[in-house]
Amino acid sequence: MAEAYPIILQNKITTHNPIIVVGGGIAGVSCAESLSVQNIKLPILLVSGSPVVKRAVNIRNESGTVLNFDIEELSLGSLTTEINRVKVLYGIVTTLIAEHNAVTINNNFSIRYSKLCICTGATPQLIGDESTCVYGIRDTDSVELVQAKLRDSRRVVIVGNGGIALELVYKIKGTEVVWVIRDNAIGSVFLDKGAAQFMLSEMGNKETRNKDKKGFRYIQGSKGNLAYAPGGVHIRGSALGPDWTDELDIDDVLTGKNIRIEYNCEIKHIQLQETNNSMVEGYNREWPVHVLLTNSKIIECDMVVSATGVQPNVYPFSKDSHLKISTDGGIIIDEEMRTSLPNVYAAGDACTVNWTGSAIEDNFWFQMRLWTQALQMGNYAGKCIASHLNDEYILQDFCFELFTHSTKFFGHKVILLGNFHAAGLDKIDVEFLLRYGKGDEYIKIVLFQEKMVGAVLIGETGLEEMCENLILNQLNLTDLKDNILNPDIDMEGYFD
Ligand SMILES: Cc1cc2nc3c(=O)[nH]c(=O)nc-3n(C[C@H](O)[C@H](O)[C@H](O)COP(=O)(O)OP(=O)(O)OC[C@H]3O[C@@H](n4cnc5c(N)ncnc54)[C@H](O)[C@@H]3O)c2cc1C
Ligand SMILES: NC(=O)C1=CN([C@@H]2O[C@H](COP(=O)(O)OP(=O)(O)OC[C@H]3O[C@@H](n4cnc5c(N)ncnc54)[C@H](OP(=O)(O)O)[C@@H]3O)[C@@H](O)[C@H]2O)C=CC1
Questions:
Q1: Ligand 2 pocket, 482 CB below 6 A?
Q2: For the FAD/NAD(P)-binding domain, which residue ranges apply (predicted)?
Q3: φ, ψ of residue 13 in degrees (nearest 5)
Q4: Is pTM, for the whole model, over 0.80?
Q5: ipTM score over 0.90, yes or no
């Protein structure tokens, strides 16, 4: 292998082998930034396959651990002035030659590294391609393409039920949308059925049926939880077990918004008008694309947007058979961001964490491919690399103790904390506390064995700090849970 890829030391860059960071996304740039302030003498080289890089700026804490920041796009060249000590190279890493601690750039020349950090992100995992009128969204170019296509479209089919679909469905105006999801509620990657109902009732014109009392929702259960409405009206319900949302009925809420949701199905086949074989009799040639769903319906449309998740970019690194790849396609990393290859690290969407500790036990962090995690992982990878070079002990960063995500869906602020999905918990020991103010807020707190393990906070709830403290300190809430969401009691003040 070494013969096939002769190694040329890039003496122009350094007489020592640099630390090479591959990828100009948030993970790569934050890794380079983090390395630039560590106590290390080695040069730092950022290799990016794109001339435009992304950097997190104006980083601010919404509460102890909930982060928010803006994303700045800048030219690769300007990074050298923005980040001290970092050199840049516009090129694509085409081979990893781990036995020589080297990477090949553009199949042309190779550079040895002291340490390598792979931050190559992910690519949309699409159900088709442009030849079948299927489009995906990942970067600025793809957004522009989809926007342009949408402008000329009368009807679009959106498939997928995660972040992109949620944002797109909300934003599209003037084009009819048929949203195809394989679940029985929208936004299942981030939202439970109650939150989905909250979002839909915001968007649709139709009132939800006979479920609201004085502006708040009361859910029947069997354990005696409280559901509160803003303004202090409260009623005692009973247990909000994990299946409480099964009672909700959200069909057709979007009638009148030019959005139709096809639940519990997938796309089976896409047929273009040029094809002579029509799927069924009565094939309508007015529409260029005919989409056959697994529920046997046929949707006539102009285009399909596939918002169906991402696949980590691990090629060309995965050509090395010693690099362990997870079943989800990411490069497996340990607690100190190391891959299975010596001196090789990974961060951001490209990696898959293999850490012990889970939301079910005493750690409330889990991986999701998100901006915040790309930033935190890149930053921490820089610290890990420096500590290994200096032979120092490193404590895992605090940010990996609690999952936090701050975003906006359907125009509402959404904060997700800890095990907000109540994933993997024994149903018998789970309770939900709920506060629901129509159009205002939706709060769901997940208790497990009387302790808070997760929270969904939609709207301006002001509860993020209290919730994150209660999740982290695992206080027994048996005596407090009935009041924790009572808007008339200042629980934040109580815990101070
Ligand atoms: C449409 C959309 C909206 C999103 N919205 C949100 C949101 O609201 N909130 C949120 O938290 N997350 C959001 N995300 C997810 C978030 O964008 C990603 O999790 C994050 O940007 C990943 O950063 P990264 O640095 O790991 O990868 P990327 O940003 O994908 O960067 C990878 C970089 O590696 C480079 N590269 C790849 N291969 C090579 C190679 N072989 N050689 C050299 N360079 C290479 C690429 O050119 C690129 O510069 C969204 C994602 C999408 C697609
Ligand atoms: N505001 C935010 O936080 C945002 C975050 N993002 C992030 O960007 C990345 C890309 O977003 P997105 O593409 O929405 O990915 P997500 O991972 O968020 O969602 C993918 C969705 O597609 C579904 N899906 C996958 N394959 C198929 C298929 N063949 N047919 C039908 N449905 C399918 C999944 O269903 P199932 O769950 O059943 O597998 C899931 O609902 C993600 O990392 C996401 O977290 C994107 C936009 C906004």
A1: no
A2: 19-206, 252-378
A3: -80, -45
A4: yes
A5: yes
Q: Among all chains, which residue has been given the structure tokens 């095990």?
A: 419
- For the CA of 308, the closest atom of ligand 2 is 22
Could you tell which of 31, 48, 125, 413 is best to mutate to test the pocket of ligand 1, judged by most ligand atoms within 8 Å of the CB?
48
339: closest CA among 327, 322, 356, 361? 322
Closest CA to 407 of 445, 370, 377: 370
Topology adopted by domain 5-123+310-398: FAD/NAD(P)-binding domain (3.50.50)
CA 119 to ligand 1 center in whole angstroms? 9
Ligand nearest to the CA of 376: 1
Convert the pLDDT of each residue in 211-235 to its tens digit: 333 333 333 333 334 344 333 333 2
Topology of domain 134-204+257-306 in CATH is: FAD/NAD(P)-binding domain (3.50.50)
Which tens digits make up the pLDDT trace of 426-438? 889 999 999 988 7
pLDDT of the residue at 143: 84
Q: At what angle do helices 26-36 and 371-389 cross, to 10 degrees?
A: 30
**Cα 279 to averaged position of ligand 1 atoms, centre (Å):** 38
As beta bridge partners, residue 123 has: 311
The ligand minimizing its distance to the Cα of 306 is: 2
| 297 CA to centre of own chain | 31
* CB 407 less than 6 A from any atom of ligand 1: yes
Residue 264's contacts (CB-CB under 8 Å, 6 or more residues apart) are 181, 182, 183, 184, 295
Q: 305 exposed, middle or buried (CB, 10 Å; 0-12, 13-18, 19+)?
A: buried
Query: May I ask the CATH architecture of the domain 404-495?
Result: 2-Layer Sandwich (3.30)
pLDDT, tens only, 38-94: 999 999 999 999 999 999 999 998 888 888 888 888 999 898 888 888 999 999 999
Measuring CA to CA, which residue among 76, 72, 28, 32 is closest to residue 52?
A: 76
